[in-house]
Amino acid sequence: MAKSPELETFGWAARDPSGILAPFKFTRRATGEKDVRFKVLYCGICHSDLQYVKNGYGFCTYPLVPGHEIAGIVTEVGSKVEKFKVGDKVGVGCLVGACRSCDDCGNDLENYCPKMISSTGSVYYDGSPTYGGFSDVMVADEHFVVSFPDNLPLDGAAPLLCAGITVYSPLQHFGLNKPGMHIGVVGLGGLGHVTVKFAKAFGAKVTVISTSPTKKKEAIEDLGADTFLVSREPDQMQAAMGTMDGIIDTVSAVHPVLPLLGLLKSHGKLVMVGAPIEPLELPVFPLLMGRKIVAGSMMGGMKETQEMIDFAAKHNITANVEVISMDYVNTAMERLEKNDVRYRFVVDIGNTLKAA
Questions:
Q1: Residue 140 in contact with residue 92, Cβ under 8 Å?
Q2: What is the DSSP code string of 214-258?
Q3: What CA–CA distance (Å, rounded) separates 334 from 121?
Q4: Element (H, E) at 331
C-alpha cells in the first residue's frame, strides 16, 4: 500500500487554561505500516478532560485537543496491520504509545509504562503533540486500538475505553470479581455507575455509597444496586460497618477515607480510582486493625481493555450517556464541573463536528 499523505484534520481545542474550546485545524500523521486510521463518530467526555483543558494537573500544553474515549469506523490500515480492516468498529482510549520493552509492557500493563504516551496532551515518538478525539479523524498504532463487537452501540461503548477499564481492572486485579462478594461503590458518576454494572455482572452484592440521598432511586432501580448508603448519615454507616469485601472509590474530590475503612471486613480492600488533586488524609491505625489495604489503580493495559470490552458485550454493559453536539461542548464542561450529567457526556462527532 502506498503511504498515505498527512491528513488535514479538524477538531476543537483549548488554547489556554480558561479551558474554552473552539474550532481548530491541525495535521494527523500519515498512516504508517502498523497504523489504523478511523473516522471518529463518538467521543466521551471524562472528568480528566476538564482537568486537562484547564491545566488542573499543571503539565498541559496548548493548543490541546481533549478526548480519550474515541470510537469510530476504520477507513484505512497500514500494510502490516493484522487485526483490523476497513469498516471495522474500533476505539482508542487513554493510550497511544508505550516502550513495549519494560517489565510492565511485558506483562501487558502498558498503562504503567514509564514511557507511556497519552492520547491527548502528550508528545509522540516523532516529537509531535498528541491530539485527542474531539476531531474528525484518529490515527493510532494497531496495538493501541480495540475492537468493538457488533452488539455494542458506539455512543454507549465509547466511555468504556476510560471509565470502563478504570473500574474493571481493579475489580479483576484485587480479586473483587467473585460471585457473592459485597462490593461498595463510592460516588455515582461516570465511573461509579459503570462500576455498579460490572460488579453486578460478576455476581456481587453492590452497595452505592453517596453523599446525595436523591441518588438512591436511580442507583437501585435504574442501575441495579442492591443497597444504598448515605455517607453523611452516621446511623446508616454504622449499620454497615465490617460488611464489605472491597470498595471502589471513584470520587475525584477531597473526601474522608476513615468512614470507608470502617465499612470493610478484615482483609478488605479500598481501591482509589478517582484522582483528587489535593491529598487525602489516611489514618493508619484502622488499616492495622483488620489488615486492610488502601490501593490505587489507573486504567488498564491493552489486553485487559479488549477483555473488558468483550465482557461488556457479553453482558450488555454500556455507559448511560447524554449525547451532545460539538457546539454544546463548553456548556457540557460547565455542567460536568457541577456533576450535572447522568452519567457521561458523549459528543456526536460524526454528525455534528462541522469544519469551519
A1: yes
A2: GGHHIIIIIT--SEEEETT-HHHHHHTTT-EEEEEE---S---SH
A3: 20
A4: helix 329-337
Q: What angle do CA 139, 190, 273 make, to 5 degrees?
A: 85
**119 contacts 70 by C-beta, under 8 angstroms:** yes
Which cell is 59 given?
Answer: 503539565
Q: How confident is the model at residue 63 (pLDDT cuts 50, 70, 90)?
A: very high
User: CA–CA distance from 254 to each of 80, 236, 281, 353 (Å)?
Assistant: 47, 21, 9, 35
Residue 348 CA from chain centroid, whole number: 18
Question: How do residues 82-114 score in pLDDT, each as one tens digit?
Answer: 999 999 999 999 999 999 999 999 999 999 999
Q: Which residue has the cell 466511555?
A: 159
Give CA separation, 141 vs 4, 73, 329, 342, in Å.
15, 15, 28, 33
- Cα–Cα distances (Å) from 166 to 22, 89, 133, 222, 307, in that order, read 29, 21, 18, 22, 13
Q: Enter the C-alpha cell of residue 181.
A: 462478594
